[in-house]
Design goal:
With 175 residues, this protein is mainly α. The protein has six helices and five strands; from the N terminus they run ββααβααββαα. The protein has a domain at 46-133: Arc Repressor Mutant, subunit A.
Amino acid sequence: MTTGERRGEANRVVPVLGLDEFAPYYLRAIANRLAQAASRFYHRKFGIGLTEWSCLSTLAKEEEISASRICEMSGFDKGLVSRGLASLEAKGFIRSTPVKTHNRTRLIRFTSTGRALYGEIEELALEREAQLLKGFDPDDRATLMAYLRRMHRNALELASQGDYDEPTRSPVFDS
């Protein structure tokens, strides 16, 4: 039996996905480790979770933003973003105002406290990124970022294709 096989029902050899050479596996494993560590770190140091930090960092890209725009930019689902924004508003880091022309839309802006918090966390986030990319020279880093941007575009394209026709296929492990 080879590395990419296992015994199935009736001792039949069944092919097994070789995770050591499967990019989505590594991306997910790295993302999970980073998210878990960052969530603990930001919660302990600042009293906010990773979702809240993601909302703040997305908000920092635009002067004011809607929850749906944060979802679009971050890839988070609406419920998660909504809870994160409610928490940030309750803590006084953001404020939201209704848009008169759109019944349910609200625009979100930093408060001065939230802007200061963002600046503090941004500095630490950049330090954590430097630690993650330790050993990468500037050319390696530029190449990595180009590849990640390309993968991000490809992932958006895959996501826009909708559900798979075959019920046995999983979008999480589809390359």
